[in-house]
Amino acid sequence: MKKFLMTFACAVMTVVGMQAQLLYKISGNGLDKPSYIIGTYHLAPVMFADSISGLQKALAASDQVYGELDMQNLTSPENLQKMQAAMMLPEGTTLSTLLSADEMKRLNAALKELLGMDMTNGLIAQQLGGLSPIALQTQLSMLIYLKKHSGFNPQDTFDGYFQKVALQQGKPVGGLETVDFQVSVLYQGYTLKRQKELLMCMVDNLEYENQVSERVVEAFFKQDLMGIKAIMDEKQNNSCDYTPEEENRLIYDRNANWVKLMPEIMSAKPTFFAVGAGHLPGDKGVLQLLQSAGYTVEAVK
């Protein structure tokens, strides 16, 4: 779970003013007009945007919107096919052949708790049995959230809201990453052995995953980036923890890549960036990297 949300950085809190804020203004360093960046949470309701002070003014002052992905590209038939293919096990392999009998029993117990059904049901086996362990882990993360927070609409997500508003206003949208890159990072960066290990960590620790999910949601709705960072940094001190290499690939290398791209984007037009909230805080977070690059980063009140 901590992976899809991903040392308390007290110095960053002091410099950036990160007490309880998701939206920041980026200025200085040669920019004619400021740009903005907001931390998002994919499963948050769109109406939460109304709770964020200064959001509509920041959107109105921006001439374009950038997300992690250009959502229009993501939903093209070609890219949907790429994403779906990346989420599947190799041909001839299913979860029932990949997992041991005991592992399948534990997985079915988790599915029963979350869905009320498991893979002894033919329809569930047909829908989930061919997924890679990492893709199934993503689905389980969503089920954990939806168990306590109903009403999620995958066609109307919080992180997609900003691009939708831009398009309605005739403004261009863009992405800091390509679908191919995200497929590589999110689904192809693990061996099947490691995928299975991480899936079973979730399956065997559903109560802990439930607690983490609720704490992340609570911190997000409080606009508490440092609270999110503290949760991301928690360790169980076993193989369920993400390795430094995995954390770099999923979070910190991407942060650094985005900050390399952002100056040219912001120089061309005042831009509203919307990226996962877990990417913003910390000494290797996007906010601090922007400051280190010479920009002034201020919370929007």
Q: How many runs of DSSP E, i.e. beta strands?
A: 6
Strand content: 5-15%
Helix content: 40-55%
Which shape, going by the Cα principal axes?
A: globular
Based on secondary structure, the structural category is alpha/beta
Question: What value does the average pLDDT take?
Answer: 91
- The helix/strand order is HHEEHEHHHHHHHEHHHHHEHE
Low-confidence stretches: 1-18
Largest sheet, if any? 6 strands, mixed
Treating each run of at least 4 consecutive H or I residues as one helix, how many helices? 16
Spatial ordering of strands, largest sheet: 4-3-5-2-1-6
Q: How many angstroms does the end-to-end distance come to?
A: 30 Å
In angstroms, what is the radius of gyration? 20 Å
Walk me through the structure.
53% of the residues lie in helices and 9% in strands. By secondary structure, the protein is an alpha/beta fold. Helix 5 packs parallel to helix 11 (179-186) and helix 13 runs antiparallel to helix 14 (225-232). The longest helix has 25 residues, at 244-268.
